[in-house]
Amino acid sequence: MLDDPPLLTVRRNFPRPSPKQIDAFRGMPTAQVVDAMDGRGALDRSIKPQVRPGTALVGPALTAFAYPADNLALLGCLDVLQPGDIVVCATDSYRETALTGDLLAGMLRNAGAVALVTDGAIRDQDGVEAAGLPVWHGGVTPNSPARFGPGSVGLPVTCGGVPVASGDLIVADRDGVVVVPHARIDEVAERVALIREAEAATEAQVKAGMVRPPWLDAVFGTDKVREID
Questions:
Q1: What's the CA angle centered on 53, arms 198 and 194, to 5 degrees?
Q2: Torsion angles phi and psi, residue 34, rounded to 5
Q3: How many Å apart are CA 138 and CA 134, to the nearest integer?
Q4: Burial code of 188-197, b = ≥16 C-beta within 10 A, e = fewer?
Q5: H runs (alpha helix) in the chain
Q6: I need a surface site. Which of 50, 118, 129, 208 has the fewest CB within 10 A?
Q7: Does 82 reside within a domain?
Q8: Mean pLDDT in the chain?
Q9: Structural domain of residue 164, as residue ranges?
Q10: DSSP string across 139-179
Q11: Residue burial 68-82, b: 16+ Cβ < 10 Å; e: rest
Q12: Whole-number Å distance between alpha carbons of 151 and 90
């Protein structure tokens, strides 16, 4: 590295999903969204929800990258985010210091964020919950961060093993967090609608007493299954 990087690199202008695109995913479980993307798109399972039961959110990603043990980038989001954004702050999965506690979580909520997703750690769990900002995080520690940078806001990141760009659509519930790339939002919405319709039909059959799916008969009783004593 020839020169020290700037404390913050910020991109404010990026394409965001339309309200119609966002509404198409409201109420969609993350499992169905993943199914619509061929079984992929969810952040690593180590990122756990700090949310109330029944919490399910959808919104545009505002990305940030905070260097390990620093949270200046997350503070920088306060100057960029728009109401309804879901802040996705990557830390290279550094969890020895907290990325945020209750006060910054409260400021993010006051600025309009509807959730925070990070592969880093948090602290002040009781206060974070009282602040009303749902958080998906990689762990908990009381150790505090610095705020000297460097970092970025609005640039692409990798969080929980998944590439995320500002303007991608985030769908999150107690099962996890799913990233829908901006260019695929309409395609995935159409596929999710079909999957939801099919699952609703199967759910009705299960509630009516179905014991096994019909396609299972095409497996058992054929040479695809070997019975042994």
A1: 15
A2: -60, -45
A3: 14
A4: bbebbeebbe
A5: 19-23, 30-36, 72-76, 102-110, 125-131, 185-207
A6: 208
A7: yes
A8: 93
A9: 8-198
A10: EE--PPPB----EEESS-EEETTEEE-TT-EEEEETTEEEE
A11: ebbbbbbbbbbebbe
A12: 10
Token digits of residue 198: 């099919």
* CA pair distance 213, 218, nearest whole angstrom: 10
CB of 208 within 8 A of CB of 167?
Answer: no
**Total domains in the fold of the chain:** 1
The Cα 202–Cα 187 span in angstroms is 23
Q: How many CB atoms lie within 10 A of CB 204?
A: 10
Can you tell me the distance from the alpha carbon of 16 to that of 169, in angstroms, rounded to the nearest whole number?
8
Give residue 58's pLDDT.
Answer: 98
Structural domain includes residue 216? no
**Which DSSP category does 226 fall into?**
-
Residue whose entry in the numeric block shows the structure tokens 């699952």 = 199
Domain of residue 96, CATH code: 3.50.30.40
Model confidence over 63-101: pLDDT tens digits?
999 999 999 999 999 999 999 999 999 999 999 999 999
Decide if 229 is inside a domain: no
The distance between the two most distant Cα atoms of the chain, rounded to a whole number of Å, is 71
